[in-house]
């Protein structure tokens, strides 16, 4: 190991979209200022570290996927430590601290971190620092920042204890001497404020920078007393600021003319094999005056080996909005360079440890290709990015405001005006016009443009060679921090892509007068290991899917109908569907559900319409959770007596949680038990994979 063993700790990260890696890099950067050295590795690089023989403290930063699984990069590690043959003292020598990242919008909050934490404890490892669980729903920094602040003292104490056990008194004295000044320094941070000069290279390497208000020539608007993205008010505007360390630059971009060929899109997808398939059908399921516009698209997969089951999901590889890419090029002063090829390399002499070209960035491609297919230009900028943008801003007032937004003191402003307002990089450039970042900063700080996931809404048994899916066109209304309304990255692009199919003209009609499309989209599978029909067709099941949450259940019912036709001697359990939408005449997405009801595929169909008025003496139920309560005895019978399954698909916060509450109340009432006991039963149903959710935030 290259690190000084007297001050070394092992730093491991497991990331899905880059969050955990970015936090680990921040820890690595701050370590030096505390007299420590972090030996940092991705948790998948098991050839570069060995927990079986590790003597120094270990710090783990790990994220969680939407389904509650550890990230892909941690799969091998988790599989290794979950070996049942390992003895309970396997890691008795190990001391560690773990920071888990998650989103409480999803059912299995921070489950990736919890899984690793629990297993390490089972194998005898000990905490030297309490586990932190950060929630992306309210802001990771609310837990991450104080967790990192407390980490340093805990690490030094752990190193002291380690050396004492080894009897190395001389090392104990050395570490003790280095610990005392750091403790004094940390205690004095609140009372002593140091000047920050952004040009000072020495200050750039520190872990936390402070700044006096007097160092900035800030002109506070006399009339505007309301805070906003660009305007601050006391106490933030009058505070000395604790600002993150400036991330070291590590990417170099070289322009190389217009000759060459862009890489194939499949080279950007490391997870799976991609398939290029045509869109053969597009139908608008909602009326023009509906609040949301829902589309159904049909893909032709007959010439591929793409396979799926009802309940699976798949991903669409999508580009950024072309107009936004052009606008970004214009603001960066690169409008004439969009079609030029660029070579992306690691900057020589960079101070970033283990710097490498991001895997999602081709070594050579056009600038427009990178901005269109590789970078998530709609991503909410992280504080480290804001810190880097400070260096590119010439106006003193704008510079100060960017410093505030990335500081500890401006945390609530960051949440309100950037994170909660979904402000993106382009919005920042409009709001702070003197900010002129270099191209390498975009590549360093903007995350990978993620493919978007959709639930399959068809059955390959019912429609061989076809794959259907349903989605709402996401609308992002304007707000004070974002004066321009936008459509979702993928749903907006798909809506434009299929416009000729939705509104055909003579150029989009074939000889039979039917609309057709020769354009293709790239997709790859995202199988779901649990959200499938019961293996035993005699098992009854209930489905809850309001709005586009009905999508996978169309595939369920198509599949069940085909099985009933092909196996007339089989016994099939009863099926229930609870569906809801705003208006019966505007957004009842699949009125042909009645066909499934009439042919016996669907046993019970219960619907509700939340915005329709009623003249009935007793108001009809508004939401699916309300209908479910009306059928309490049936729900209890299916789940408890007949060992059936319960499926939920759709919005988590406003629907799935309400449905779970309703089921708990039903179980409590029908079992004549208290709510806690009912919650335990629901937890058991989840464990048995009989209460299944496919939800989104």
Automatic annotation (TrEMBL):
<dbReference type="InterPro" id="IPR029039">
    <property type="entry name" value="Flavoprotein-like_sf"/>
</dbReference>
<dbReference type="InterPro" id="IPR017938">
    <property type="entry name" value="Riboflavin_synthase-like_b-brl"/>
</dbReference>
<dbReference type="GO" id="GO:0009086">
    <property type="term" value="P:methionine biosynthetic process"/>
</dbReference>
<dbReference type="InterPro" id="IPR039261">
    <property type="entry name" value="FNR_nucleotide-bd"/>
</dbReference>
<dbReference type="InterPro" id="IPR001433">
    <property type="entry name" value="OxRdtase_FAD/NAD-bd"/>
</dbReference>
<feature type="domain" description="FAD-binding FR-type">
    <location>
        <begin position="272"/>
        <end position="534"/>
    </location>
</feature>
<dbReference type="Pfam" id="PF00258">
    <property type="entry name" value="Flavodoxin_1"/>
</dbReference>
<dbReference type="GO" id="GO:0050667">
    <property type="term" value="P:homocysteine metabolic process"/>
</dbReference>
<comment type="subunit">
    <text>Forms a multiprotein complex with MMACHC, MMADHC and MTR.</text>
</comment>
<protein>
    <recommendedName>
        <fullName>Methionine synthase reductase</fullName>
        <ecNumber>1.16.1.8</ecNumber>
    </recommendedName>
</protein>
<dbReference type="GO" id="GO:0009235">
    <property type="term" value="P:cobalamin metabolic process"/>
</dbReference>
<dbReference type="Pfam" id="PF00175">
    <property type="entry name" value="NAD_binding_1"/>
</dbReference>
<keyword id="KW-0560">Oxidoreductase</keyword>
<dbReference type="InterPro" id="IPR008254">
    <property type="entry name" value="Flavodoxin/NO_synth"/>
</dbReference>
<keyword id="KW-0028">Amino-acid biosynthesis</keyword>
<dbReference type="GO" id="GO:0010181">
    <property type="term" value="F:FMN binding"/>
</dbReference>
<keyword id="KW-0288">FMN</keyword>
<keyword id="KW-0963">Cytoplasm</keyword>
<dbReference type="InterPro" id="IPR001094">
    <property type="entry name" value="Flavdoxin-like"/>
</dbReference>
<dbReference type="InterPro" id="IPR023173">
    <property type="entry name" value="NADPH_Cyt_P450_Rdtase_alpha"/>
</dbReference>
<keyword id="KW-0486">Methionine biosynthesis</keyword>
<keyword id="KW-0521">NADP</keyword>
<dbReference type="GO" id="GO:0046655">
    <property type="term" value="P:folic acid metabolic process"/>
</dbReference>
<dbReference type="GO" id="GO:0030586">
    <property type="term" value="F:[methionine synthase] reductase (NADPH) activity"/>
</dbReference>
<keyword id="KW-0285">Flavoprotein</keyword>
<dbReference type="GO" id="GO:0005829">
    <property type="term" value="C:cytosol"/>
</dbReference>
<keyword id="KW-0274">FAD</keyword>
<dbReference type="InterPro" id="IPR003097">
    <property type="entry name" value="CysJ-like_FAD-binding"/>
</dbReference>
<keyword id="KW-0597">Phosphoprotein</keyword>
<dbReference type="InterPro" id="IPR017927">
    <property type="entry name" value="FAD-bd_FR_type"/>
</dbReference>
<dbReference type="GO" id="GO:0050660">
    <property type="term" value="F:flavin adenine dinucleotide binding"/>
</dbReference>
<keyword id="KW-0949">S-adenosyl-L-methionine</keyword>
<dbReference type="Pfam" id="PF00667">
    <property type="entry name" value="FAD_binding_1"/>
</dbReference>
<feature type="domain" description="Flavodoxin-like">
    <location>
        <begin position="9"/>
        <end position="152"/>
    </location>
</feature>
<dbReference type="InterPro" id="IPR001709">
    <property type="entry name" value="Flavoprot_Pyr_Nucl_cyt_Rdtase"/>
</dbReference>
